[in-house]
Amino acid sequence: MRDAVIVSTARTGIGRAFRGSLNNIKSPTLAGHAIAHAVERAGVSGAEIEDVVLGTTLTAGTAGMNVARYAAIAAGLPMTVAGQTVDRQCASGLMAIAIAAKQVAMDGMDVVVAGGQENISAVQNDYAKWIGETVDPAVIARAEAAYMPMLMTAEFVSNKYKISRDVQDAYSAESQRRTAAAQKAGLFDQEIVPITATMAVVDRQTGDVTLKEITLLRDEGNRPETTFESLAQLKPVVDGGVVTAGNASQLSDGASACVIMDAKLAERRGSRHWASTAESPSQDVRRKRWASGRCSQSPSS
Prior knowledge:
This protein is an alpha+beta fold. It is globular, with a radius of gyration of 20 Å. The protein has helices spanning about 25-40, 65-75, 90-105, 120-135, 135-140, 150-160, 165-185, 230, 265-270, and strands at about 5-10, 15, 50-55, 80-85, 110-120, 195-200, 210-215, 250-260, 275. The relative contact order is 0.24. Strands 1, 2, 3, 4, 5, 8 and 9 form a seven-stranded mixed sheet that branches. Strands 6-7 form a two-stranded antiparallel sheet. Helix content is about 35%, strand content about 20%.
């Protein structure tokens, strides 16, 4: 078995869904931007890439019909480059990297692009509505919580493992503080590649929509003024619950990609590598426990 290494990575800034800089972008363009820059940073030609593996949760609309293939085209890669889209829900992007690493380590490919994208603004509402209208009774009969929304899984896990509202608020406040400190120190600057997009701006008074060009340079959504005390003032989304708009993760748009290469090829080229890959175990959990997925020591079968 050969060793696979990551020789480059690039990502867009994280845009706030619906109200952020990327709220009007197409998924192939979004992912293609990250792919193009990852390939450029790796110093490889597009013709060398044997596959593009892209993970995404909302595989519909602009992110449908094998968005990995369309993203490769949008990135300017040759039409000879294949693409495959992976849906393992929240682990989709990580699974894409694991698949790409396996293609290099076991399948004889030398250079593969992998990553993930999510376009909440464009897809989520219609996607969720469609799923809600087409729930399969055969699934419900065997797993009552199979279609449970993430909000309710968070409440279930919080209750099961006794994760209090205070603990979650304290963690969230510290997360905001650390993010602000990291942005100020420029810790994310090297990995982010600026992206210019046409943002849709809605007038709160009239509802009119105007378009403006904007360049996203950094992650959106951080609120450095957040404190434990301010978070404590927020009402839970569910009566009697612990999840609020302040201690839950925001909805976001964005994409990231990396180039995975055979380690010996990277060495011959003098390519700096960021990480090597290892086994990628997977273990499913019941839907209502999604937030409590655990790591296994044995490889995936």
